[in-house]
Amino acid sequence: MANFIYPHIALTVNNIEETKRFYISIGFRIKEDVYSSEKKRHFLLLEGYGFEMEVFHFDNQEKNQSDTENLMKTKIHHFALPVRSLIQLKEDLLKNKVELFKDISVSSLGLKFINVKDPTGFVIEFFETPKNESQ
């Protein structure tokens, strides 16, 4: 198994195949893709935007478990990933048939951002980095 080299988050999702296709379409690459019959779970380790993501799907998980009663109804509001150009990202997302949850906007902190939802309903915010910062 690969070692973690970036900050990461772990998500439990409703549909592993839809999730895999979605994250590949927005620029992530698969580092690990493992099914364990012993643990009755599918595990993905994805990498992109200087960030790693663990993705889990369990065989006996109820549909919509990750966004209803799971974890006492707490959930992630969104996670944010840096990009150099929101205009280019928007073109790429639309070309890959990724629906925009929220078009390019400006936050109260003055950052330009765009939002999409993954197949489970988690919101991903892409924010434009200042031109002098690297990604």
Quick description:
This protein has 135 residues and is mostly beta strands.
Structural class: mainly beta
Biggest β-sheet: strands ordered side by side in the sheet: 1-4-3-2
Question: Which regions are unreliable across 5 or more consecutive residues at pLDDT < 50?
Answer: 65-74
The percent range for helix content is: 10-25%
If you had to describe this structure to a student in words, what would you say it looks like?
This protein has one domain: 2,3-Dihydroxybiphenyl 1,2-Dioxygenase, domain 1, CATH 3.10.180. It contains two helices and eight strands; from the N terminus they run E-H-E-E-E-E-H-E-E-E. It has helices at residues 16-25, 86-95; strands at 8-12, 29-36, 41-48, 51-58, 79-83, 100-106, 112-117, 123-128. The longest helix has 10 residues, at 16-25. Residues 5-129 form the VOC domain. InterPro entries: Glyas_Bleomycin-R_OHBP_Dase (IPR029068), Glyas_Fos-R_dOase_dom (IPR004360), VOC_core (IPR037523). Pfam families: Glyoxalase. This is VOC domain-containing protein.
Provide key terms for this protein.
single chain; 135 residues; mainly beta; 2,3-Dihydroxybiphenyl 1,2-Dioxygenase, domain 1; four-stranded mixed beta sheet; 2 helices; 8 strands; 15% helix; 39% strand
Topology:
Elements: E1 8-12, H1 16-25, E2 29-36, E3 41-48, E4 51-58, E5 79-83, H2 86-95, E6 100-106, E7 112-117, E8 123-128
Domain VOC: 5-129
Protein name: VOC domain-containing protein
InterPro entries: Glyas_Bleomycin-R_OHBP_Dase (IPR029068), Glyas_Fos-R_dOase_dom (IPR004360), VOC_core (IPR037523)
